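Task: sequence design from structure.
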C-alpha cells in the first residue's frame, strides 16, 4: 500500500454522515507508515455529483486511476482504516491531481489557521 494508490475499501458500518460501503479511497498517509503500521489514512470517493466544497475535487476516470465513474474526493472525511478492510487496489491517482489533493487536505485540516474565529488561539 502506497500513498496515492486508489483502493476499494470496506467502510461499513455506516455511522452518521460518514461514507459507508465498499468504495474507492485514496491513500493519503506517508509511505513511511504505510509499510509498518496496521492502519492507513484514506479519503473516500463518491460518485454523487453536486456542489464542490473547498475540501473536495473531481477526478475523471482513466485507465491509470481505475475509476469507472467521475468521482468527488471528500477531503473532509479522512478515515483511518485497518489494513484488513482494504479489498483490492484499482489504480493510482495521477500526479496532475496531487496539488488539488494537497489543497483539499490543507483546507480540511486548516494547516494555516485561516479559519480560526477572531479571538481564538492555539
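Answer:
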Amino acid at each position: 500500500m502506497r500513498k496515492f494508490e486508489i483502493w476499494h475499501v470496506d467502510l461499513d458500518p455506516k455511522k452518521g454522515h460518514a461514507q459507508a460501503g465498499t468504495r474507492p479511497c485514496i491513500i493519503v498517509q506517508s509511505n513511511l507508515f504505510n509499510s509498518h503500521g496496521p492502519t492507513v489514512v484514506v479519503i473516500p470517493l463518491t460518485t454523487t455529483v453536486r456542489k464542490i466544497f473547498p475540501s473536495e475535487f473531481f477526478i475523471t476516470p482513466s485507465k491509470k486511476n481505475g475509476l469507472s465513474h467521475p468521482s468527488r474526493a471528500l477531503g473532509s472525511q479522512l478515515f483511518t482504516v485497518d489494513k484488513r478492510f482494504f479489498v483490492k487496489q484499482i489504480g493510482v491517482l495521477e500526479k496532475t491531481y496531487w496539488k488539488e489533493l494537497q489543497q483539499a487536505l490543507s483546507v480540511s485540516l486548516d494547516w494555516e489557521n485561516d479559519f480560526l474565529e477572531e479571538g481564538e488561539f492555539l
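Strands lie at 5-10, 22-27, 39-46, 56-59, 71-74, 79-82, 86-92.
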